[in-house]
Amino acid sequence: MKKWKNRWDSPRTETSAIPVSLKECKNVIYNIFAKPKYAKLNITKRAYIKLMCYINLIGDYEISGFGRIQDGTITDFKILKQEVKPAYVECDEDAVLEFIKSIPREELGEWELDWHSHVDMGTTPSGTDWDNYKNMSALRGYKQFPAMIVNKKQSFTLINYISESNHENIDLYITGEDITNSEIDEIYNFVKNDIKSNCTKTISIQSKPAYPIYNNYWNRSNTADEFDDCKCKSCGVPLLNSHELTTGLCEDCELAVAETIGGN
Amino acid sequence: MVDFREINESLENSEERDAEDLVKVELITLSGLQEYEVEEGMTIKEFKEKHNLNEVKIVNEDGDVMRNNDIIECDSQFFISTPKKNG
Ligand SMILES: [Zn+2]
């Protein structure tokens, strides 16, 4: 086996023999050497009040979205279509796609803040949150981003997420501009309507029904298309042929399941 | 001592194929536009594996989800998405 003089000395004509090309190493190298983007961030009063309205008006449920950062200051928050629960919140991939399409292309880079609430609980990221940050990092082309968790007691955690093993705290300062009561009312009413149109609360009725046959009905959630027979039950893409309709899985998911079973 | 400027230049300039074999893929990501040059005829599965995008869904401009066996034949623009789940 050929030995390189040093690890950067791979001849360009032979890169195809190396499992990972130099270009592909770039994300990894970037994430190892990256310095945190922000040591501190500011937040405007308007944005802070909007955030507090979201986490309080949603009640005893978590809520999640993205925030806009302009020149080191958090200036706005948005929510996506989402299913909210007391200790969990999910925006599906259609909701995330809808968000990406709704923001002007040149503005997308500013919507880098990933945020959600923990109702009354501590703001340390959960296992689900760390998994989410990893996926969101892929969705951002492995660029680092600030991630914030807040609760109703106004505690928060704010970090630069660079990679799974590299994340640093960010200090947060509120800006000192004036805000009128009518502006606060406006924000409050906007958030109230925004929650009404975008947040779905799962209805789960605890009391047991009289007949077991009704189980599916009583336990169902009020989210759409969960019972759509024409979509893959694993990933949700439209099914294309009779084989897929019979298995209920798209070919990609069927293959993934087979590989998992084969690998065990 | 390692010269990082030199490393960075080699990362930027390393070309593996002739230009005529390559097509341009524009991905609209959560951070904005990302451009890639890929080999013509590459499957979506290969593209995902090469760029560490296995966990994301690739959607074309018409809103159709790209399948693993779909082939990238010409300059294309896609959106990528994945669920945002917090607990
Ligand atoms: Zn959380």
Protein model, in words:
- The complex is a heterodimer of chains A (264) and B (87).
- With 264 residues, chain A is α/β, with parallel strands linked by helices.
- Chain A has two domains: 22-181, Cytidine Deaminase, domain 2 (3-Layer(aba) Sandwich); 202-263, no CATH class.
- Chain A is built from eight helices and eleven strands.
- Chain A has an eight-stranded mixed sheet. A three-stranded mixed sheet of chain A has the order 5-4-11.
- In chain A, strand 6, helix 4 (127-139) and strand 7 (145-150) form a beta-alpha-beta unit.
- In chain A, helix 2 packs across helix 5.
- The longest helix of chain A is centred in the last third of the chain and has 18 residues, at 181-198.
- Chain A is globular.
- The two termini of chain A are 32 Å apart.
- The relative contact order of chain A is 0.13.
- Residues 1-16 and 208-227 of chain A have low confidence and may be disordered.
- Chain B is of the alpha+beta class and 87 residues long.
- Chain B has a domain at 23-81: Ubiquitin-like (UB roll) (Roll).
- Chain B is built from two helices and seven strands; from the N terminus they run αβββαββββ.
- In chain B, the strands form two sheets. In chain B, strands 2-1-6-4 form a four-stranded mixed sheet, with no helix packed on it. A two-stranded antiparallel sheet of chain B has the order 3-5.
- In chain B, a hairpin with a 2-residue loop joins strand 1 and strand 2 (32-39).
- The longest helix of chain B is centred in the N-terminal third of the chain and has 10 residues, at 4-13.
- The relative contact order of chain B is 0.21.
- The model of chain B has no long low-confidence stretch (mean pLDDT 87).
- Chains A and B meet through helix 1, strand 5, helix 3, helix 4 and helix 8 of A and helix 1, strand 1, strand 2, strand 6 and strand 7 of B.
- Strand 5 (88-91) of chain A pairs antiparallel with strand 7 (84-86) of chain B.
- Bound molecules: zinc ion.
- The site of zinc ion (ZN) has 6 residues of chain A, from loops.
